[in-house]
Model the fold of this input.
Amino acid sequence: MRIRALLVAALVLAGCGADDPASAPPAKPGSAFPAKVAHAHGTTTIPAAPERIVVVGYTDHEVLLALGIKPVGAMDWFGAGTYGKWPWERVAWGGKPAEIVSSKSYEIDFEKVASLRPDLILGVYADLKRPDYDKLSQIAPTVAQAKGDPYTTPWRDMTRSIAAAVGREADGEKLIRSVDERFADFRAEHPELAGQEALIVDAGTAPKSYYPFASADPRGRFLSELGYKGSAEIDELAGNGFGTEVAKERVDLLDVDRLFLLIDPPAQKRLDADALFNRLEVARKGDVTPLPYTSSDQLGAAVAFSSVLSLPYALDGIEAALAEET
Done:
């Protein structure tokens, strides 16, 4: 009953305008509203420039921040004290991150969403099931993930969808071109990487097991944009998934030209003492690059987020990490 009342209240109040400094500024006259954005559950029409945006996707807020817009609500996917504190987000939030609209880190708190009176809800980098999408759509126009596998929307497509929803398509294209130039510069400066086989691996449970990401995953695509090629064996094992779990006994599957490990100090300490891993040729050659996730520079998270906001930070970090190893 309470959530129904909040939904009704949100519908009534959605057009009342923004009263929060974190809301989006109005679009300029002549902008493309009403805007239409296609997604997995149909096409959503945004009638006017949104002023109170709530994000229920994993990294949707980062596209908004890159566009100079602060959402009023966002998900705290990790629940580990990292919300609003990622290094590449801090300046954009200005010390005032959005209200948290999740419970148990990854579950949507529909009552909280409704209480924020949004006029647009974004779940682009997400896996919104139809019932949840319908419930959110009762609160405000909602843009869900693109068709295809959830959590695999390329960063360019994600940027374009969100930019279209907020009437900032030209700004979105400028952001994309800027990051494209950064990748092109990196490849030009590192032609030796072209064709080398590389993997990004979640090594949080190492050396007991590992989770290398497939080429189709955003982390795998990040390596491709650096100039590397993926592992055909891992791609085959992953099928259409994000990646595949590799047991300690099959650590040989990770013996590629370059390994990037998403890893923090406790697992790193265990891995340093593991004889089986350290017998790999890639380890003996010193071509293993640790990317801390929640510690140090949190470079691993920047790579994993692979958003138009986090990618420049990730590129700077990878450049510096590789320079230290030479």
In short: Confidence is low (pLDDT under 50) at residues 1-30. The first strand starts at residue 35 and ends at 39. The first helix runs from residue 2 to 13. The chain has two domains: 2-172, 190-325.
